[in-house]
Design goal:
heterodimer; A: alpha+beta; six-stranded mixed β-sheet; B: mainly beta; Folate-binding fold; about 10% helix; globular
């Protein structure tokens, strides 16, 4: 069913009992042209663009849990493209442009809200760094501007910009086209759109092995049987390393817990996204009224979807010093997700050492913003067996050649 | 794992420590080619399960030690001994 004003009216009159499922729940076929491991945003977007733009017929997405149950539902939903280096700026800006038309493209409201993203500067070094990044963004055609404390106070009055503050705020960069999107809607929208193009979405189907013959991938072994395919893509975020181990190689990735939490809902009071790299907190207000608050990663490697309380303590301390008004706010829920961090805080996209096996991983703490762009360029990479021009700098061999894309400064979360 | 068992100071809060990552043997730099050295610098086993890893009691005795921890549960599997001090 196509979603429209009329379908809303019709279903409202039917008390919303007639909505069809957003996607089918098929049994696995014996073979596909491409199997995507991981039914998160990136995996579903890859499947969607493979079917839509690359004309591949038989595509499956295998997901060990359910759609919208992994990192896609655990992130803080921030979208921006103000990265420092050309390689990242081009990739994230490509994605941001797709975000701007995504609801229409998918015929599904992903609630993309370009409310503006602030990156705070707390020291002279931060200020210089921010100006350098603004210039770099400018050269790449990405909107970026500097707000001095006076302008910042009028743009975001809740911030404590007094010089006595624990973390004095000397200004901020602003990307007005940045903002947030509804994370569940993004995966649901891509799953529905991919399903309508014939993609099989196989939930509760965990990959247990990646069989190969003569150095070439032949499919996947799963909890729902062996499925054959000449091309397999690993798009499994935190577990990319364990899947690579099944295919007999290792990756330059370390999986860390990353925590986030939400407050009790309030009336609208924060109409932009505020991030601070130096004190490790980023916050926005959801449409339900909850503050969505993210922190830095836990320092140690780990696969349990939980982190240390000391991180939350630091995060709350930073939040209250930036926004004294939030001091009596109660927190409702906290959770952890597993992020696969690369040494240069940039993703790995492209071929793997195994023929027919492709990688899209290492997004670390900032993969959500790249979801549609990542899917589109990765789909072309898989279909043509050659990297899309935008992902050439992000291939695995940069860790041998040394041509790293060091985005620690712009990644937003230190790791 | 809010507490880390320092072999010299006993169990102390996590915030006193810095994480040094999994134990990676260092190859001889002289004959090492780019692939060997790149692998040493960047590539990790990143196991889901028991892992030997380095910690430093940075805000305490400032000494390094190795412990084994299950990354799937964050449970520390052994208490490092003084003789393991490196």
């Amino acid at each position: 069913m196509r979603h429209s004003f009329f379908s809303l009216i019709r279903n409202a009159l039917g008390h919303h009992r007639e909505w069809p499922p957003l996607w089918r729940d098929p049994d696995p076929k014996a073979a596909y042209d491409v199997i995507i491991i991981g039914g998160g945003g990136h995996g579903l977007a890859t499947a969607y663009y493979l079917a839509k733009e690359q004309g591949l017929g038989r595509i499956a997405v295998v997901e060990k849990g359910w759609i919208g149950g992994g990192n896609s539902a655990r992130n803080t939903t921030i979208v921006r493209s103000n990265y420092l280096w050309d390689a990242s700026a081009h990739l994230y800006e490509h994605s941001l442009r797709i975000w701007e038309g995504l609801s229409r493209e998918l015929n599904f409201n992903v609630m993309f809200s370009q409310r503006g993203v602030l990156n705070l500067a707390h020291s002279l070094h931060d200020v210089r760094d921010a100006h350098r990044r603004i210039r770099a963004n400018d050269l790449n055609g990405i909107d970026a501007e500097w707000l001095d404390p006076t302008k910042l106070a009028s743009y975001c009055p809740l911030l404590d910009i007094s010089p006595e503050a624990r973390y004095p705020i000397l200004g901020a960069t602003l990307q007005r086209r940045g903002g947030t999107a509804r994370h569940d809607a993004v995966v649901w929208g891509f799953a529905r759109a991919a399903d309508r193009l014939g993609v099989d979405i196989l939930q509760h189907c965990e990959v247990t092995g990646i069989p190969r013959e003569g150095g070439k991938v032949t499919g996947v072994e799963t909890t729902r049987g062996v499925i054959k395919a000449p091309k397999v893509a690993i798009v499994a975020a935190g577990h990319a390393g364990t899947l690579a181990a099944m295919a007999g190689f290792r990756l330059p990735l370390v999986s860390h817990p990353l925590q986030a939490l939400v407050s009790e809902p309030m009336k609208p009071l924060l109409d932009c996204v505020v991030m601070s790299n130096a004190v490790h907190v980023y916050v926005s207000q959801s449409d339900k009224g909850e503050l969505v608050i993210g922190a830095g990663i836990d320092p140690y490697a780990g696969y349990a979807q939980k982190g240390s309380f000391s991180i939350i303590t630091e995060q709350m301390g930073a939040l209250v010093s930036l926004f004294p008004r939030f001091s009596r706010l109660r927190m409702m829920r906290s959770w952890g997700g597993i992020v696969d961090t690369a040494p240069d805080a940039s993703p790995i996209i492209g071929k793997s050492p195994v023929e027919g096996l492709y990688l899209n991983c290492g997004w670390g703490t900032g993969g959500f913003k790249a979801t549609p762009g990542s899917g589109q360029v990765f789909a072309q990479t898989i279909a043509r067996d050659a990297p899309h021009p935008l992902v050439v700098p992000f291939t695995l061999d940069r860790f041998t050649t040394g041509a790293l894309v060091d985005e620690h400064g712009a990644a937003g979360v230190a790791h | 794992m809010e507490r880390i068992p320092c072999p010299h100071c006993g169990p102390r809060p996590l915030a006193e420590f810095s994480y040094g990552g999994e134990v990676v043997p260092r190859p001889d730099p002289e004959p090492a080619d780019d692939a060997t050295w790149g692998a040493y610098l960047y590539v990790r086993s990143n196991p889901k399960g028991p892992q030997s890893e380095r910690w430093v009691h940075i805000h305490g005795c400032r000494r390094w030690f190795t412990l084994t921890r299950d990354t799937a549960t964050h449970r520390i599997l052994d208490t490092p001994l003084r003789k393991e001090e490196a």
